[in-house]
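In practice, a research group might receive sequence data for several interacting partners and want a quick structural hypothesis before committing to experiments. The following worked case mirrors that situation: the sequences arrive first, and a predicted assembly follows.
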Amino acid sequence: MNLKRILNQLNIPAQCKKYGLSLWQCPQFLFLVMGCIILGSSLATYAIGLRYIEEPEMVALIVLSVTAILFIIAVIITNSFERLAEANRMKSEFVGIVSHQLRSPLSNLRWALELLMSGRVNSISEKQIEYFKILKENSDRMRELIKDLLIVSRIEMTKLPLKKIEFSLEELTEELIKEFEFFAKSSNVEIKFEAQKDLPKAFADTSQIRLVIENLLDNAIRYTREKGFCQIKIEKREKNIYFEIRDNGVGIPKEEQKYIFQKFFRSENVLKYQTQGSGLGLYISKAIIEKSGGKIGFKSQEGIGSTFWFTLPIK
Amino acid sequence: MDLKAKKALGRLFGLLYLLNKNMKTILFIEDESALQKTFGEILKQEGYEMISALDGEIGLRLAKTKKPDLILLDLILPKIHGFEVLKKLKEDKETKDIPVIVLTNLEKIEDVDKVLELGATTYLVKAQYSLEEVVEKIKNALGS
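A structural hypothesis for the assembly, expressed as tokens:
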């Protein structure tokens, strides 16, 4: 049992995975690297010492002290790295636990509200319905936010499950456009869609890709000024399927473009149009597309519009 | 009261008894009393009888004694965990044929697979369904 634990500690890639970090940020791996550096420099000091210093005792002393200093530095560095990594892991875990715990009371609220609104308990007046609707809209918003937070914590803990299958990106997009029809109409945005003929199937997790397209569509419609359009295009490009969505919305200011895929980031200029939004959609989308083996990017000009695109592999 | 009225009354009671016998019972094993109340109300209106169990232990006992037509089961329960309840229900000859709908907020694929493997009929994540949709699933599972 003990031996197993020791072996487990020595399994560096597994330890790094626990923190959800890349190898070069992982304390265990860094400690190993530092070990090698210490060995190398001890040997180097020894070789140099032999050449320039007469007494062998002096050489030994110098080698020992250099090694000791390097060792202390290594311990300090990896310790602080480990603390950082642990804090980061705990933060993701905390977000996961809190959002999970928020779901139960929220379900209770939502369902009790639904029962009241259905008029099964007592008949309700016109005036009350207005307020019930406010309650419902806000509990839906809370549910969406919690859903996003849970996905984020799963991405960070590298626990986002992907069930990859072959599916038609074209059909999925059509389905989602229908779902967004009402929202688009009420925002005065026209959605156009064109897909290349005889497209091959994409290979990814449909429910996750659905989230990505939902996010992109929602952004394209939400951040328009007065009358807008949103053009979606799907085509085959080399060994990938290419999806593009173009809008004539508010666009992203140049100096803010580098932050756009960061979590919780919301551009200054969109806050004038829309105060709602968690700033998680694009962060989640990027993580999903990259985990699916694709790429994601955008072009944007403030006041003219944005074009977001992603690619997905074909099997 | 004359004889005719008595006979009519007798028939009425007979009919009520028959109706009651046909009324399907649903056992709801869930520790959130708010949900117990909401579901109790809506299921009563849909014409079902609902029995509440606030923990896994009571749930298992009621499943044996009351023989419900359907069991709604939460997974995170006091005393006996939902997985264990489901396992025991399916091991017991007397209860193994009762359909079980798992109603929970756990949504890991491993949990879903485990529950379905243990023999649950349906797996519903609370956050993803409206009350009406859940009632619809219950009706389907009861075949009515």
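Before designing any experiment, note the following. DSSP finds six helices and five strands in chain B. The mean pLDDT of chain B is 86.
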